[in-house]
Amino acid sequence: MQIAGWGGVIVASTGFFLQNRLIENIRNTEHYKDALKTLRLNVGAVHYLGEPIKDKRIKLTDSENNNADETSARFCVPVTGPKDKGQLLLQLNNHTFQYYIRMFVGTSREKFFYHNTLLCLVKSLQNRNITVDLRDDSYVCGHLDTVDGFMNLSLSKAVYCDTRQNEFLFENFFIQSRNIRYVHIPEDISIIDNIKNEVHKENMKHTNPKPKKSRKATKALQQHMKTVAMLEK
């Protein structure tokens, strides 16, 4: 028994060691470092998370978000700051490397806005190209990367057009919600369907499956029901 116990400890330690080594190898890649550096320079991410932004341990056991094969790889890096937390999604294949920032709708106030305003509709437009009219009559076109619980928007590859029709290119562009006048909804989108799908998707994240009763608990419940049935006779 003692030998078997030590064997289990050695196997577990070896697995833990290999996991740590693999995670360190991922963190030492240039793609990982560049993505994290860009995240820390992103105005929107800094606004959401605060500074400093720190990366956390990748959960390799989460095979849905962390997986790799001969042609592609995908990793989900938890990131945190003094204000909030989020995820940095890394996707790599033979031809391209992409990364996305995904924020959580965390506080009760944010959840209220999400379910009681059209914030959920705007959030459903993530990873699409949109146009946003601003309150000073200027507008911005770009790829919508993130939407937080207060409808602050973070866009990439954006074009800002001022009131004199001068255009300016920005790699990243952050818009605070108080400056938004309109968010243009693409014509190919069904507003009702998008709202339903987005709310359903968000609710599914927070749905906790009922824990399965143990055999002992099931037997106790059956005995309890028998007792109740006898008392009712």
Overview of the molecule:
This protein folds into two domains: 1-102, no CATH class; 108-203, SH3 type barrels, CATH 2.30.30.100. A hairpin with a 5-residue loop joins strand 8 (153-161) and strand 9 (167-175). The protein has helices at residues 2-27, 30-41, 43-49, 108-116, 119-123, 191-205, 215-232, and strands at residues 54-55, 67-68, 72-80, 85-93, 97-103, 129-134, 139-147, 153-161, 167-175, 180-183. Strands 1, 2, 3, 4 and 5 form a five-stranded antiparallel β-sheet that branches. Strands 9-8-7-6-10 form a five-stranded antiparallel β-sheet. It contains seven helices and ten strands. It is globular, with a radius of gyration of 24 Å. Helices cover 39% and strands 28% of the residues. The chain has 233 residues and is of the alpha+beta class. The N and C termini lie far apart (53 Å).
In short:
This protein has 7 helices and 10 strands. It is of the alpha+beta class and about 230 residues long.
Helix/strand layout:
Blueprint: H1 2-27, H2 30-41, H3 43-49, E1 54-55, E2 67-68, E3 72-80, E4 85-93, E5 97-103, H4 108-116, H5 119-123, E6 129-134, E7 139-147, E8 153-161, E9 167-175, E10 180-183, H6 191-205, H7 215-232
